[in-house]
Design goal:
The protein has eleven domains: 152 residues, Immunoglobulin-like; 105 residues, Immunoglobulin-like (Sandwich), CATH 2.60.40.10; 96 residues, Sandwich (Immunoglobulin-like); 95 residues, Sandwich (Immunoglobulin-like); 101 residues, Immunoglobulins (Immunoglobulin-like); 104 residues, Sandwich (Immunoglobulin-like); 52 residues, Immunoglobulin-like (Sandwich), CATH 2.60.40; 104 residues, Sandwich (Immunoglobulin-like); and more. It has one helix and 103 strands. The chain is mainly β and 1196 residues long. It starts with a strand and ends in an 8-residue tail after the last strand. It is flat. Strands 67, 68, 70, 71, 73 and 74 form a six-stranded antiparallel beta sheet that branches. Keywords: Secreted, Signal. InterPro entries: Big_2, Ig-like_fold, Invasin/intimin_cell_adhesion, SDr/BOS_complex, Sdr_B.
Amino acid sequence: MNKNELVKKWGSGLLAGTLIIGSLAPIAQPYRASAAEDTIQQVAAAGQGSVSDTMFEDLDGDSVQDSGEQGVAGIKVELHNDQGALVATATTGADGKYTFANLADGTYYLHVDLSTLPTDQKLYTTQGINGADGNSSYFTISGGNAVTGYHFGFYPQQGAIQSFVYIDTNNNNQKDNNESGVSNVHIALYNESGTKVADATSAGDGGYSFTGVKPGKYYAKADIPANYKYQSSTYFGSDGTTGYFTVANEQTVRNELNLGLSTLDNSAVSGVVNNAATGAGISGVNVELHDVQGTLIQTVQTGGDGSYNFSGLEKGNYYTKVVIPTGYNYASGNGYGSDGNSNYIALTGDNTAGNYSINLQKQANATIAGVLNLPSGLGIDGQNVSLYTADGTLVKTVATDSNGDFRFGSLPEGDYYVKAPIPDGYVFDSSNGFGNDGNSYYVHVESNSYVDSLRLTLAQKVGQIRSTVFNDLNKNGTQEATENGIAGATATLYSASGAVVDTTTTDANGLYKFENITPNNYYVKVTPPTGYNVLANTAFGSDGVSGYIQVQSQQSITNLNASLVLQATPAEVSSAQWIYNKDGLNRVVNNNDTITIANNYYDSYNNPNVNVQFFNKDGGVVNTTGYTATFSNPGLVTPIYTNSQLLAFVHSEKTGSTLVTVRDANGNVVRTFTIVVTAADVKATDIVLGATSIKTTVNATGKVSATVQPTTATNKTLAYTSNDTSIITVDANGNWVAKKAGTTTITVKTTDGSNITKTIDVTVTDPNAITDVRWNFNKDGVSRPVNTNGILEIPNTYMNQYNTPHVDLQFYNSAGTLVQPKGYTVSFSDPTIAAADFTNPDLIALVHNEKTGSTNVTIRDAQGNIIRSFTFTVTAGAVSATDLTLGASSIAAKVGDTGKINATVSPTNATNKTLSYTPADTSIITVDANGNWTAKKAGTTTIAVKTTDGSNITKTVNVTVTDPNAIASVKWNFNKDGVSRPVNTNGILEIPNTYLNQYNKPHVDLQFYNSAGALVQPKGYTVSFSDPTIAAADFTDPNLIALVHNEKAGSTNVTIRDAQGNVIRSFTFTVTAETKTIADRVKSADVELVNLRPNTGSTGTNAYIYPHSADVPAGVTYTIETYNTQTGLLFSNITVGTTDGTYHQVLHNTTNPTATWQQTGNTIKVYATYQGVKYLVLQGPSTDYYSSQTTHVWKD
């Protein structure tokens, strides 16, 4: 450093100056500081200089304090000389001013104590003072001058809230472009302590805002209007109050405080009036809407489909009344009674009651009646008779009553015919009004006609029975040539109900007959004459009764022959015995008994005979001469009849069974029994179990179902063995008893030496055993399961519902019943972590002592069985989040961009650092659970970043997404004046109803451009009009959308959407009525009389009229009358042409030109005729309009 230079450092700035050797002693000078707080450092002989300025809020950033920009108080300013010595200090007052006065001449600088800058303001602009270190540049006081220009400009570090109150039509909790705002809704903003800090009222679009909001926590409350109700919101609840939210420095909370409402006058009632016969709607029916007091509110008529609708209804109770038209009656209804009044309908203001219907039928009082009968006049009942319309449509089917009468009532006027059946067994006999096919002639009825003359008479067809009663000598049930009929037998014919129809007696040939039988079901009983019995055959049973017989018309039945046999008096068999067994025992043989023998059986005489002897009631042996035996299995045994004292049945070694029927000499069955021949000593081959497992409960009993195979096995005895008799016992017959819970098996084994074994799995449960252990009495009221090998974890600050450090365990059986842990024990692998408390007989409490760690816990019941074994872990208490720091408070992105939100939870040892990320509008940006975001479409929204540990700390990220391909501008092009005009959202596009574009079309041509100025084709765009009678959209040209007007004056809201439904522009399109009358408009034309006009293809003098299409409509016919000026006589009248409305149309007359137009003395009158009215356009000397070889110059 040069020894002649002195460098002083103040704060972080450098001050440089020159020290003059020999002048080291400072010269004392007088100074005065002036501000809100003054500190006088030196006072001596006063100087005249000063330095002053103002610290202020520089809201517009121009470094100049403007009107309305407030001063900033409390900033400490120091004055130093060029040696760095402190001269004086001042603190800005409420007006932000500071002043150092009475300064001697010299060089100075200012230093602002940056620690005194306001915390709720940010340094925005500086003048003369370095904002980094607070030091000013040097300035000089000379000759008592006043110095200024050293100040800071500040900007309040405040936030803002901008949101909407709107009608959430689709209830998706976000404001869509087509959803209108709700105006005049009052919203109040409150700070965290509940003090109201601001009020706002929603504007016409529903928008409201709070500006100048200091950083901090707030809540808002909206006064929901009486004719609206809450629909949706992220922050607002149904009472119109939000939860707490945070507004940060310079943060604008956009759309997060949107409040979706729905109207309470948007209910509707709809229904339909139908024709009950056809199902079609009935049009023109009056339907009335009433309130519950009966006051008529509105009347509508049903449309062509019978439907009606009442809309825009307020909340309340209503009913509708269908005024039933003349000629109709009530048929049925859904929600309607027979008087046409509906049930009461409760409307909420936003619901639709749409399931009401009433069915009406035309009044019908006509009747068609008749009768079905026999020639005797007896009615034919139970026959279905049908009525048809003349076109063959079935109307109704009825059954004839007991008199054969039928009747169709309540018929509307029309033509009908009746169809009656001709049932089997009947033929047409005669009729009145019927043909022989059962169809009537056409019958016409008026509304009250009564036609009852129809008659259809039918004759019955009949059948007969002719058969024989005969002597069945060979007892085979069939009459042979040698077997004669038996006279004197009685035959009786019965109806199916058992009534006697007819009785007859067989003739000498045994013939009986029943003739003229009405077709039906019958049966016959034959009573034999004395000395005969009935032998059962295919027609009759042994009781002489036949089966049911269906007799059909014109049928002759001849197969009901009855078989009789002579009565006999044989010795009556009372009992039978199986005799001559080797064991010396005689065994009784009863009817249906079974005799079982082995195939090596021999009687006491060593014959393979089964000997059966028969006895009368006195015990005497019955002679078996003439006895016969028949067998179901004839090959198994052979009968021997040679011994008149018994019947012997000889078997072979063949096994099987046969049914044996023994008859006496008269064919009477005396015994029926079964002989079974089995193989000798048959071994078991298998055991079949009824079930392979037993699942039961303690103390239950049952029996093992087990069967030995084959069924002919000699020894079918089984052995039953339980492998654990403490669980289940089983006796020799397979009866078991469940003893305790557990699993084991039962072995089932044959005992005939075949050693076949089967195993049954056994599971026994104890309904009183513990099946569930629950951790109860938590402060959150949740009951949690405690599972074996599970982990039960608590913080060391855990307290139960009763504020004791107890983990309360309760025990339940399979029925869910609480079991007291009487006699239970608890062991811990680390007893320093917890101890067991048994004070409460209904539970075991694990008592922790705030020590952290883990211990294995084993709980045993009174028998020492382990109930549960699990890990009990005590952790340090959770550390809650205290702050949330964002890496950036805003995101500016383009559509398709991705990124991640940088957010950090404080403190660093917070237990739960998980954050949630919620975008206010997912159509603009989406965020996943990890903070990764994707920009979706252009727009502005916010992302709420929130802690999830219950601390509910929320920070907001402002999001702006732009779309480089989005429509940046819309222009109205192709105007006749060549000017391209912008079309802005919420703007007004106004045209006269005479407007035509460059191409003479009534088209307003709109073209679309992106941010680069490139033309974008409106592919897939849609246009909607609030009043479609004003204009329509034309998409013919792919490069534009044309709004086509039809000269009708008025306004319509126009909304243009792209292919994705986004609103591109929404504006008002106004068509104004032309102020000119038609009389004035038709005068807007140029009239020229020209000789030899170039490029027109005409010669001589011609008349030309050039209408201005902006004024002159199509259909105006122009004519020219020429008069002699002196005499007033008309001598020429020509038609020039008729307008077609096109731009620059030329009306040119080439016929009957008037050559004298070029001469003086002629007056012309030009007329325009429009819609039958003739208007004078002009009149004057023809020479005023005459020229030669000129061309026309257009003026429009």
